[in-house]
């Protein structure tokens, strides 16, 4: 007889965590606040509700990182994937689902499981004892949010994301861009060359501002802006405040010398900063935006050096409760300051239905293993699951940490393969082949209990 695992939040992550732990023989209680307490986005009291689009994105497990995550979750008997497959709708290479029967099936399957019970009501505190997983998502209730902030420190819990686009380093044209920190500041050579700079002349800057102003933008959802603060303005809003605002803000050209044209003073400079320890990803500094995705790729490719950029993720600003996981969570998804509490799902700083469910799968298995008297190693960073958990629990830069989709920039490179756009197909295949082998090897010893 083991202790009970309590899971707070029956969304993508909580539902998957419950399923995995219950299948390992652990008694699980899901605490879900809906329908008593709602959010601005959820419409029902069902578990596993999809709050917006009905897509789980690409299902290509050979050439796409989210497709690979699908594959890994299927291999681990994932509830969210099995239910998505059951209610699949035609959508080309994407996995789209019929949302109402999907959530109904997730709810029924969990309710029928002999090891799972559901208690409805809001949890408002972090408990001192027992084994808990908090999977309360981007719209965590405000009372619980305050309790989490009291434990972690207010600066380690965000209520909005401010996502600047992230570019694959190997898609940047270094014949035009160069590495240099403003005024060569820094103690070490690495610090003095921490930024990647893309210069603009006046004509390029003017065209860029025109494009920013004209681009299609998304609106906040109704009810989403409560608590939104002015400190992190979208780049296009800065441009609306005056054509020169960006040149005096994130695009100021001072303290930098372009080694490709040392005698030419840039009119404006776009800076990118390393986003992960591997150095495969760079974010465009200060470029959080509400532009629509299609518009973003068009506008950002106007930046000299980014003409052929591949984006690991595009920018956005959303209502989104998330932890500064690199400072707070260990590789077992436990709160370092209170190891009886794990976090899973979007609140850990992953982004998307699939990524949230994936982190639920890991948290559920890890918590159950611990309750059964053992432990599970963190999956290797060469797998999609492992790449994500490694990123949020330490691979990402804690100072600039923002929610992350799964993407190949999170994976350790495979040696001996061609970089850049031309080698992409072979490279992605090598990543996914390696991931599948390593994921199977991680799962194999658990087969007896899962
Ligand atoms: C408006 C909006 C639109 C989004 N659209 C998309 C999209 O189109 N595609 C995509 O891939 N991702 C989208 N996301 C991001 C994210 O992937 C989803 O929110 C996803 O559902 C996150 O999974 P989760 O399990 O972490 O959280 P959720 O699925 O939100 O589950 C959290 C659960 O916890 C419950 N809860 C919260 N607080 C408490 C409490 N104190 N006590 C008990 N229960 C509590 C909630 O009621 C909810 O059921 C969107 C997010 C938002 C906010």
Helices and strands in order:
Layout lengths: L4 E4 L3 H12 L4 E5 L22 E4 L6 H11 L3 H8 L1 E2 L4 E4 L1 H14 L3 E5 L10 E4 L7 H11 L4 E7 L2 E3 L9 E2 L9 H4 L2 E6 L1 H13 L20 H6 L27 E7 L6 E4 L8 H8 L10 E3 L2 E8 L1 H4 L5 E2 L2 E6 L9 H19 L12 H12 L28 H20 L7
Parallel strand pairs: 1-2, 1-7, 2-6, 7-17
Antiparallel strand pairs: 3-5, 4-5, 8-15, 9-13, 9-14, 10-11, 11-12, 12-13, 16-17
Helix pairs in contact: 1-11, 2-11, 2-13
The structure holds flavin-adenine dinucleotide.
Please tell me about this protein's structure.
It is found in: Cytoplasm. The chain has two domains: 5-162 and 319-445, FAD/NAD(P)-binding domain (3-Layer(bba) Sandwich), CATH 3.50.50; 166-314, Elongation Factor Tu (Ef-tu), domain 3. Helix 1 (12-23) runs parallel beside helix 11 and helix 2 (65-75) packs parallel to helix 11 (353-371). 32% of the residues lie in helices and 17% in strands. The chain has 450 residues and is of the alpha+beta class. The strands form four sheets. The protein has a six-stranded mixed sheet with strand order 6-2-1-7-17-16, covered by helices on one side. Strands 10-11-12-13-9-14 form a six-stranded antiparallel sheet. A three-stranded antiparallel sheet has the order 3-5-4. Residues 8-14, 31-34, 39, 41-42, 51-53, 122-123, 135-141, 144, 221, 319, 345-347, 352-353, 356 line the site of flavin-adenine dinucleotide (FAD).
């Amino acid at each position: 007889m083991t202790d009970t695992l309590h899971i707070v939040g029956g969304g993508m992550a909580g539902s998957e965590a419950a399923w995995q732990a219950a299948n390992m023989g652990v008694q699980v209680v899901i605490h879900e606040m809906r329908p008593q307490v709602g959010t601005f986005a959820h419409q029902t009291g069902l578990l596993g509700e999809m709050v917006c689009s009905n897509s789980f994105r690409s299902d290509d497990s050979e050439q796409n990182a989210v497709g690979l995550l699908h594959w890994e979750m299927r291999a681990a008997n994932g509830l969210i994937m099995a239910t998505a497959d059951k209610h699949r709708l035609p959508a080309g290479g994407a996995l789209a689902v019929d949302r109402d029967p999907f959530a109904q099936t997730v709810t029924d399957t969990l309710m029928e499981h002999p090891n799972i019970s559901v208690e409805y009501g809001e949890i408002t505190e972090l408990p001192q004892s027992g084994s808990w997983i908090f999977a309360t998502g981007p719209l965590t209730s405000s009372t619980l949010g305050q309790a989490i902030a009291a434990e972690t420190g207010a600066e380690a819990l965000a209520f909005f994301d401010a996502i600047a686009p992230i570019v694959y380093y190997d898609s940047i044209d270094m014949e035009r861009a160069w590495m240099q920190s403003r005024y060569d500041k820094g103690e070490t050579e690495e610090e003095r060359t921490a930024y990647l700079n893309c210069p603009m002349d006046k004509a390029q800057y003017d065209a860029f501002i025109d494009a920013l102003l004209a681009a299609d933008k998304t609106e906040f959802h109704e009810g989403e802006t409560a608590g939104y603060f002015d400190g992190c303005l979208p780049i296009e809003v800065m441009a609306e405040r005056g054509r020169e605002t960006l040149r005096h803000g994130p695009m100021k050209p001072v303290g930098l010398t372009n080694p490709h044209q040392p005698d030419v003073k840039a009119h404006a400079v776009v800076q990118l900063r390393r986003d992960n320890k591997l150095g495969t990803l760079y974010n465009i500094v200060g470029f959080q935006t509400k532009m629509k995705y299609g518009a973003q790729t068009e506008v950002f490719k106007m930046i000299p050096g980014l003409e052929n950029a591949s984006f690991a993720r595009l920018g956005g600003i959303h209502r989104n409760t998330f932890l500064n996981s690199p400072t707070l969570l260990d590789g077992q998804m436990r709160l370092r300051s209170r190891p009886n509490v794990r976090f899973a799902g979007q609140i850990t700083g992953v982004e998307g239905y699939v990524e949230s469910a994936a982190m639920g799968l890991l948290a559920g298995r890890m918590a159950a293993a611990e309750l059964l008297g053992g432990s599970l190693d963190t999956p290797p960073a060469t797998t999609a699951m492992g790449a994500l958990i490694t990123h949020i629990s330490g691979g990402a830069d804690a100072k600039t940490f923002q929610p992350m989709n799964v993407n190949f920039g999170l994976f350790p490179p495979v040696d001996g393969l061609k970089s850049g756009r031309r080698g992409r197909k072979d490279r992605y295949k090598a990543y996914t082949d390696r991931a599948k082998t390593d994921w199977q090897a991680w799962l194999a010893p658990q087969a007896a209990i899962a």
